[in-house]
Amino acid sequence: MEQVVGRLFFLFTEKEFIYDVLQSCLRIFGSFFAASAVAIPLGIMLGSFGGFKALINPTVSGLRYLPAASFIPLLLVWFGPSETAKMALLFLGVLFFLIAMVLDNTEAVQREYTEAALTMGASRKRIILEVIVPAAMPAIIDSMRTMIAVGWTYLVIAEIVGAKDGIGAVMMRAGRFLNVDTIMAGIFMIGVLGVLTDIMFRILQRVLFPWNVKKKV
Q: Which domain holds residue 10?
């Protein structure tokens, strides 16, 4: 372990490794927030409209059982070993699971809230925007925190495919020379970044929804 930590500190003395870490972070956050921008509205719609759910959910449920890595040959045909292919793989790795989780979060909103709003004459659109979304958002943020961890697990797979930079590319180059310390340092770095991301989402949840944190306690 000391050798791994020592190697990690040595890597940070090189500007190239800092650049690799930043590139990996940009890929993770860029692809994740793009997936969230699609998954959250779609999940809320699926959870709010039974007919729409009956139409779309079987397809979403089926797609989430396909491993993201199985899309690699198709992505390489479409985009080649490009940045777009890497981002698309990370995007697909999160998208379908996040849709399903947001759907569940939306359906978990207590019916008393929506029934009270209906009694007061609120429209369906207003109920979704002013009742369902605010009530579901703490759970949705929690689902995002869970799914960005999944994104980190796909990072190495995405960066191995024709990557010139990123933590995965560093690990791949180290593997060619049997440099185990560098490989382990890369794994450790991804773990540290994952933990920091988790902490960031927990802080975000506490700041945005302090009442929900007190409720859990």
A: 2-216
